[in-house]
Amino acid sequence: MRLLYFAWLRSQIGIAEEEVTPPDDVRDVASLLAWMRGRGPAYAAALADDRVVKVAVNQEFARAGDPVSPNDEIALFPPVTGG
Amino acid sequence: MTVRVQAEDFDMGAELSALLAGRHDIGGLVSFLGTVRDLAGDSPVSAMTLEHYPGMTEKMLARIEAEAAERWPVAASVIIHRYGRLEPGDRIVLVAVASSHRQAAFEACQFLVDWLKTRAPFWKLEETPDGGQWVEARASDDDAADRWSREPSPA
After folding, report:
1. How far apart are CA B5 and CA B20, in angstroms?
2. Residue B118 and residue A80: Cβ atoms within 8 Å?
3. Where do the structural domains in chain A lie, given as residue ranges?
4. Distance in angstroms (rounded) separating the CA atoms of residues B2 and B77
5. Could you tell me which CATH class the domain B2-146 is placed in?
6. Domain extents for chain B?
7. Mean pLDDT to the nearest integer, A62-83
8. CB-nearest partner of B123 from A4, A7, A59
9. Cross-strand bridge partners of residue B133
10. Residues of chain A positioned with their CB less than 8 A from the CB of B141
11. What is the predicted ipTM?
12. Which numeric CATH code is attached to A2-77?
């Protein structure tokens, strides 16, 4: 699974992307975020507030219950501020 | 129907002329140009850096543009959004919509601007005297987009 981080999530976590292999019980966005918070203090801090963490699965906005699988590209980022 | 995501500046006059070139079915063209301000609240801003999600950005902008064309009789449209480091006064984004009548052009242009502010994956980092500050999303931007919504917001 390829994870991408943008904006302050990238600077807080300290990397722009990484390849991860979550345990089998990580099947949706909510369980992925829960698992990631346990990966270290930088992850826990950056992902602490669900309301400001947006998730895209394969470049589509996703909700907490949407499925994730090993070959997905998953991006985590704060609410967008373009325009 | 054109979407461009680029670091380079653009010539607004040339873009609008290109949109109208050879067309005799267009009765009105409405454009929005977003530029960099030198003030964020009370803090002076010396520059800003726009980050985006290559791939998803183009996809979302194309989808938003297609939705506008589905909802209004759009004869031609263009969205150009820049990324990278920009200084006050620099152009950030151009949205232009041409239609046979003005009402559709006004509404579709406003729809595109409101929706791209809440759906296109761009983030602004402002350079202020206190250092780099990520711009926070505004609830008013969500409200502006929501009034065009036909279904619950997807994100």
Report:
1. 21
2. yes
3. 2-77
4. 6
5. alpha beta
6. 2-146
7. 96
8. A7
9. B126
10. 83
11. 0.94
12. 3.10.20.30
